[in-house]
Amino acid sequence: MATGHEFTSVGQPQRTQKLKRQKTNMQQSDTTGGSGILDAVVVGAGFAGLYMVKRLADQGRTVRCIEAASDVGGTWYWNKYPGAQCDVESLEYSYGFDNALQQDWHWTERFARQPEILAYARHVADRFNLRRHIRFDTRVESAVYDESSRLWQVTLAGGETLRTRICIMGTGNLTAPRVPDIPGLDRFKGRWYHSSRWPNEGVDFTGMRVALIGTGSTGIQITPVVAAQAAHLTVFQRSPNFVVPGINRDLDPQHVRAYKATYPETRLVAKHSQYGVAGMLPPTQSAFDVSPQERQARYEKMWGFGSHTPFLTAFTDLLLDQKANDTAADFVRGKVREIVKDPKVADILTAFDHPLGARRLCAGNNYYETFNRPNVTLVNVKPAPIETFTEKGLVAGGVEHEFDIVIFATGFDAMTGALREIDIRGRGNQSLNDKWKDGPATYLGLMIAGFPNLFIITGPGSPSVKSNVVLSIEQHVDWISDCLAALDQRGIETIEADAQAEANWVAHVNEVAAPTLYVKTDSWYTGANVPGKPKVFMPYVGGIGRYRKICDEVAADNYRGFVLRPKTPATA
Ligand code: NA7
Questions:
Q1: Hey, which bits of 338-398 come out as E strands?
Q2: Distance between Cα 182 and ligand 1 center (Å)
Q3: Does ligand 1 lie within 6 Å of residue 521's CB atom?
Q4: What is the pTM of this model?
Q5: Most buried among 152, 282, 346, 372, using CB within 10 Å?
Q6: Is the C-alpha dihedral spanning 260, 261, 265, 269 positive or negative?
Q7: Probe ligand 1: pick from 215, 395, 410, max atoms within 8 Å of CB?
Q8: Which domains does the chain have, with CATH numbers?
């Protein structure tokens, strides 16, 4: 797996600045009863890994969690770039498994910023005493299934191998950063950073000439913050994204009290909703069921409400019908033209090449307004791509631009990247990378045929990135924990997806996605942002309520579609 080293020009402060609190980091004695065999290894200590470790430990299992970073938090550990913030409301983007936790934790803003979310993850780790199970600063290099012992052998950087019955990947969907293959970066004498490998001590942009490459959610969050500090910011845009206002504010204590009074009920609504968000009623009307004036008024209301989910749920058909989608896209175009003073800049910002929401709809804080600042320049690299880096900067369209700092907000090898970087081998030494060479195939996004007792939390084929991911994580962790308890009770040693059930699920995932505009659009959801990656739409978009029901029915029906193998005399 790529280390942070490869994603900054200035070393890796994260690795040397270990927090004192991490001294408690996994000094475990052998708790395996002398056998050296663990019940479970969990890879990753983000939101998925933390809750998984808690459930496994509560079940009395021996568990080790292996984490590449120096602390818990996953995505929210790594993505500490300026302006990093969640676009799901903090009262919803948080664990619901423990009512005392959700009552005690105090969110300060409607949309939490990265430091607060990271503090929350640390609080959860400490509150439930989870750090004792976690080994930080350690990468998993391979996970190999040994058929004779029915154990996974998980090899860590440095050579140590753990033996475990269960292996659970909580490796996240936006974990493996991507720096585009533009020649000459090694010649560049300034500093450069990838947004998700940001130095702990931050970067001072005062007086600096800064280049920002990429205008996805990350670039859109970085732009106003860096523009306010730098001498000059040049944004290199290849494809414009639709940006709706984030509209953040301090949370009103009275609102929080009222919200918390019915927290469990609200979580239940979220669990059965489309995206895992309780705050918005599902739409009931097509964009063409209402008059143009009414349509405009609804978009206006959603624009003022803030963030992407409300905007996307203005009408039933925004992600299904291009013409309906055009009405929303035209509304945003009009807004950009109102906000951005220079019509040529507005033209570049609105040269949309995809339907609104078919790529991640972004929530910004004064994004479009920032292009009215005299110290900000927008360069359209669609017609004239970045050709090369030079000692002083970069060349695009035959013009050299000089910079002190370059920021890559160029995204991730999403959904499969972190798994692809671990050498995972199942029965018959089959490599997962080989199995997935034409795109990922899973049963329910949870398990893979040929890979017994290997679970993925929010894997491809599950709602994952098309949902409030904390809620989806909890659903998967609960399902896995309940599954393990049920198997133990019945003397089952291994569970594995049946190949036919997996093929049927992949077909269902495709069938559900087929009528949507997602599949007609190149995006990181389809792997199109990574050269050579197979183009397959990866998340399940049938709705998280529907998905949960399917998972529960499968479990209730004696784990339909899974092959269950009892203990043998040799392994009992
Ligand atoms: P994204 O959404 O994948 O955005 C990456 C951006 O980088 C996007 O604008 C790309 O343009 C741009 N890019 C990539 N390579 C190049 C080159 N060579 N030249 C110019 N521009 C380039 O990543 P984010 O980190 O913003 O967001 C990922 C998710 O994290 C987000 O959706 C949230 O869910 C959280 P392109 O569109 O490919 O033309």
A1: 362-364, 376-380, 386-389, 393-396
A2: 15
A3: no
A4: 0.95
A5: 152
A6: negative
A7: 410
A8: 41-176+414-497 (3.50.50.60), 185-408 (no CATH)
Q: Is 409 in the pocket of ligand 1 (CB under 6 A)?
A: yes
Q: pLDDT truncated to tens, each residue of the chain (572 aa)?
A: 333 335 666 533 333 333 333 334 444 545 676 779 999 999 999 999 999 999 999 999 999 999 999 999 999 999 999 999 999 999 999 999 999 999 999 999 999 999 999 999 999 999 999 999 999 999 999 999 999 999 999 999 999 999 999 999 999 999 999 999 999 999 999 999 999 999 999 999 999 999 999 999 999 999 999 999 999 999 999 999 999 999 999 999 999 999 999 999 999 999 999 999 998 788 999 999 999 999 999 999 999 998 888 899 999 999 999 999 999 999 999 999 999 999 999 999 999 999 999 999 999 999 999 999 999 999 999 999 999 999 999 999 999 999 999 999 999 999 999 999 999 999 999 999 999 999 999 999 999 999 999 999 999 999 999 999 999 999 999 999 999 999 999 999 999 999 999 999 999 999 999 999 999 999 999 999 999 999 999 999 999 999 999 999 999 999 999 999 998 766 66
Cβ of 75 below 6 Å from ligand 1? no
Whether ligand 1 lies within 6 angstroms of the CB of 218 is answered as yes
CA 74 / ligand 1 centre spacing (Å): 20
Q: Which of the listed residues 75, 218, 470 should we mutate to test ligand 1's pocket, taking the one with most ligand atoms within 8 A of CB?
A: 218
**Which atom, in ligand 1's list, is nearest to the CA of 386?**
19
For tokens 């750090």, the residue is: 131
Which amino acid is it at 299?
A: Y
The tally of CA atoms less than 13 A away on the side-chain side of residue 312 is 22
CA of 463 from ligand 1 middle (Å) equals 21
Taking the CA atoms of 42, 264, 91 and 357 in sequence, report the sign of the dihedral they define: positive
The CA 478 to ligand 1 mean position distance, Å, reads: 33
Give the residue among 361, 554, 366 at the shortest CA–CA distance from 465: 361
